[in-house]
Write a structure and sequence with these properties.
Length: 253
């Protein structure tokens, strides 16, 4: 890990391959959640992909660097975080594959044409603003709590920007799964695949991964639970594969 003293940032390894990511503890520090989402989605290399609330660019970096996706757009509302994402794109030499836009998903910039993306992804804020004590740092507060957008705002934007027949991928909390399904169907996004994520085998799931398709028929496929750690406390073999850039919960459905 190298320190960028001028910017107060650190550069870390992203996954088990060659990708690197610059982070700033006061601005942005990524978790495993966007990596799980990037591993869950079944995206073909030539698909057009949009990541709503891209943060420091973890999902675009992962999809282009490890999954071979040719072109990914990231949208981030916080200018300083978007600038960090652009630094990370340049750090990994992926300027021709990734573009980072600064803007609000509720009123997207003109570059984001409605109905133009095959896939729209998001690792949105999980909690309403009134449920927990907010972090002191504004950037962290906006990333974790629904201060600048709600779950409905995210799903509405995903539906608007996704083409008919296109797909939306989200990671969220199991306790909000009902809210998520209600919003998806309200905006004509039919849940098609679901995977519960647990810290270790037998533990209560703490994340849920959902893939939905726009204007699709009903029919939900539930995948086996995914464990981040094994019973020994180390990363599970499946999680190691995800960190290597492989797909999570591969299935043919």
């Amino acid at each position: 890990m190298g320190e960028d003293r001028r910017a107060g940032a650190v550069t870390d390894r992203l996954g088990l391959g060659d990708l690197r990511i610059k982070q700033h503890p006061a601005i942005f520090k990524f978790t495993v959640d966007p990596i799980l989402l990037a591993g869950f989605v079944r995206i073909r290399p030539r698909a057009s992909v949009l990541d709503l609330g891209t943060g420091a660019g973890v999902i675009p970096l992962w999809l282009t660097g490890y999954r071979g996706v040719v072109r990914v757009t990231g949208l981030e509302i916080q200018p300083e975080v978007a600038a960090l994402a652009r630094e990370n794109v340049k750090l990994n030499g992926l300027e021709e594959r990734i573009r980072i836009l600064t803007g609000d998903l509720r009123t997207p910039p003109p570059d984001l044409v409605p109905g133009s993306f095959d896939w729209v992804l998001s690792n949105p804020p999980y909690w309403p603003a009134t449920t927990h004590l907010l972090p002191v740092t504004p950037a962290l507060a906006q990333a974790k709590f629904e201060l600048t957008c709600t779950l409905r705002d995210v799903v509405a934007a995903a539906s608007r920007l996704c083409r008919d027949g296109g797909r939306v991928g989200l990671i969220h909390l199991p306790e909000r799964l009902t809210d998520l399904f209600v919003e998806l169907r309200h905006f004509k996004l039919e849940p098609k695949r679901l995977c519960l994520v647990q810290p270790k085998p037998g533990a209560r799931p703490h994340r849920v991964l959902v893939e939905a398709q726009k204007l699709a028929r009903p029919g939900l496929k539930v995948l086996p639970p995914f464990s981040i750690q094994g019973a020994d406390g180390n990363f599970s073999p499946e999680m190691v594969q995800v960190y290597q850039g492989k797909q999570l919960g591969v299935d043919n459905g």
